[in-house]
Design goal:
The chain has about 475 residues and is an alpha/beta fold. It has 2 domains: about 15-115 and about 335-425, NAD(P)-binding Rossmann-like Domain (Rossmann fold, 3-Layer(aba) Sandwich), CATH 3.40.50.720; about 140-330, FAD/NAD(P)-binding domain, CATH 3.50.50. It has helices at about 25-35, 55-60, 65-70, 70-80, 100-105, 135-140, 150-155, 170-180, 180-185, 190-200, 220-225, 245-255, 255-265, 370-375, 380-400, 415-420, 425-440, 455-469, and strands at about 15-20, 40-45, 85, 105-110, 115, 130, 160-165, 205-210, 230-235, 275-280, 285-290, 300-305, 310-320, 325-330, 330-335, 350, 355-360, 360-370. It has a 7-stranded mixed sheet with strand order 3-2-1-4-18-17-16. A 6-stranded parallel sheet has the order 6-14-7-8-10-9. It has a 3-stranded antiparallel sheet with strand order 11-12-13, with no helix packed on it. Helix 8 (about 170-180) runs parallel beside helix 11, helix 12 crosses helix 13 and helix 17 crosses helix 18 (about 455-469). It is globular. The chain binds NADP nicotinamide-adenine-dinucleotide phosphate (NAP). NADP nicotinamide-adenine-dinucleotide phosphate (NAP) binds next to helix 8. This is ferredoxin--NADP(+) reductase. Its EC number is 1.18.1.2. InterPro entries: FAD/NAD-bd_sf, FAD/NAD-binding_dom, Ferredox_Rdtase, Ferredox_Rdtase_adrenod.
């Protein structure tokens, strides 16, 4: 055979081009699972609306939980993988439609989470001074879309706070509000957040559970931490801890519930110490109305009973708790992305093992993982298993020929986005933001201060680019 006829080495198999929408834990674990499998070579574009990765690890995990937030370092390894490209500052539905994205890659995995709050649906819910936990958490973690004016107006002058819900987010909120400025100083909270919290004269935080301690959804480590605050005491009414036979059975069968109960029983012996903030956990208490004219002044609370199936119902017996600030921490729900189906009741995208269902039928090449797939449950690590399940489904579709690597052509997604007028923030740009946050922290002797405005985040990128030019 002459040299001209030599076909040379076989060309490598085409890469499976995947866009992952949402660079929070679910998206990052999806990218990681794609790069770890050996069945097909991949190229992953990990897209986020924000110019920063990590989703709820950055804007959800409480800033006073530095060990939990350190999972960023582990997640960063997936971002650093050569087959993964971080594409921040790009909103699917605005900069590119779902259909355009789908046409640009071989498969799309939506991992955009559940960013909306659930409503209480009671009178007075919309009064000034009533905040969704999502709004407060966004503010204290420095989310660039946080509604600073509303949150700071609600917080100003607040002495009595009622937090509705007994999940881990409710505990985060209660803990952050009851901490002293010195306890919060080492966090990466923006300076205006530290200042506003230091200026809020919070004396009493009451956390309301509509069911009993046996049904609370917080976990023991998070609960215990409430008892370790520098200048706050936790109080529990011993009568709330008396269990009926059904609750006793539940506690006996559930290790978390039984450990929680042991912690609560210890606190039930506490009394308030003069001059210290109190955090009171009240069970069998559901809010029926927020009181006030121009802003919240109190919460009308109804005593409940819980039946053998764990369902709460009102007894008609009500009391009023004074409150200057009410934080509704009753769960998150997923929002709609134009062109993507959503089950409005569950706040999730209908799916089968991660395969998006349209009209009950699998939609080739479209997948979901994380909270938008299963709802807002579990801890960060839960998303690892969840993402692997979705990637296994995607690979099964590749093996079955439903998804074909290379079928989307060669156009580069970032080039397409730039042509559409978008300004994608890539990994080196995120590194510039990261460095700017560390530098800002250093000006006040802190390890990092979160940049909380779009302008400052994007300016950090531009400044770094100008320096290297
Ligand atoms: P969650 O655990 O589902 O808690 C929601 C709470 O709201 C429950 O106590 C629920 O009570 C209550 N609730 C719902 N509707 C209500 C209503 N109409 N009136 C009164 N109360 C109502 O959700 P979350 O706290 O938002 O947390 C979301 C997820 O993130 C969870 O998986 C959580 O563990 C996780 N997370 C983990 C950490 C951590 O590990 N440190 C921190 C934050 C969040 P019922 O049970 O009676 O419905």
């Amino acid at each position: 055979m002459s040299a001209a006829e030599d076909p040379g080495p076989p060309s490598p198999p085409p890469r499976l081009r995947v866009a992952v929408v949402g660079a929070g834990p679910a998206g990052i674990y999806t990218a990681e699972a794609l790069t770890r499998q050996q069945e097909v070579p991949v190229a992953v574009d990990l897209i986020d609306r924000l110019p920063t990765p990590f989703g709820l690890v950055r804007h959800g995990i409480a800033p006073d939980h530095p060990k939990m937030r350190a999972i960023r370092d582990t997640l960063h390894r997936a971002l650093d993988h050569p087959a993964v490209r971080f594409v921040g500052n790009v909103e699917i539905g605005r900069d590119l439609s779902c259909r355009e994205l789908h046409a640009a890659v071989d498969a799309v995995v939506y991992t955009y989470g559940a960013a909306l709050d659930r409503q209480l649906a009671i009178p007075g819910e919309e009064l000034p001074g009533s905040l969704a936990a999502t709004a407060l958490v966004a503010w204290y973690t420095g989310h660039p879309d946080a509604d600073r004016a509303t949150v700071e107006a609600a917080l100003a002058g607040a002495r009595s706070v009622v937090v509705v819900g007994v999940g881990n987010v409710a505990l985060d909120v209660a803990r952050v509000l009851a901490r002293t400025p010195a306890e919060l100083e080492p966090t990466d909270m923006p300076q205006h957040v530290l200042d506003a919290l230091a200026g809020a004269p919070v004396e009493r935080v009451t956390v309301l559970g509509r069911r009993g301690p046996a049904q609370a959804t917080f976990t023991t480590q998070e609960l215990r931490e409430l008892g370790e605050l520098a200048e706050a005491d936790v109080l529990v009414d011993p009568a709330d801890l008396e269990l009926d036979p059904a609750a006793e059975e539940r506690v006996a069968a559930d290790r978390v519930a039984s450990r929680n109960l042991a912690v609560l029983q210890e606190w039930a012996q506490h009394t308030a110490q003069p001059g210290r903030t109190t955090v009171t956990l009240r069970f069998f208490s559901r809010p029926v109305r927020l009181l006030g004219e121009d802003r919240v002044t109190g919460v009308e609370v109804e005593r409940t009973v819980v039946d053998a199936d764990g369902r709460a119902s009102g007894t008609g017996q009500t009391t009023v708790l004074p409150a200057d600030l009410v934080v509704r921490s009753v769960g998150y729900r997923g929002g709609e992305l134009p062109e993507l189906p959503l089950d409005p009741r569950r706040g999730t995208v209908p799916n089968d093992l991660g395969r998006v269902l349209r009209g009950g039928e699998p939609s080739p090449g479209e997948y979901v993982a994380g909270w938008i797939k299963r709802g807002p449950t579990g801890v960060v690590g839960t998303n690892k298993h969840d993402a692997r399940e979705t990637v296994a489904t995607l690979l099964a579709d590749v093996a079955a020929g439903v998804v074909r690597p290379g079928s989307s052509g060669d156009d580069d997604l970032v080039t397409t986005l730039r042509a559409n007028g978008a300004d994608p923030v890539l990994l080196e740009d995120w590194r510039a933001i990261d460095a700017a946050e560390v530098a800002l922290g250093a000006t006040r002797g802190r390890a990092r201060t979160t940049l909380h405005e779009w302008e400052s985040l994007l300016a950090a990128v531009k400044d770094a680019a100008a320096r290297t030019r």
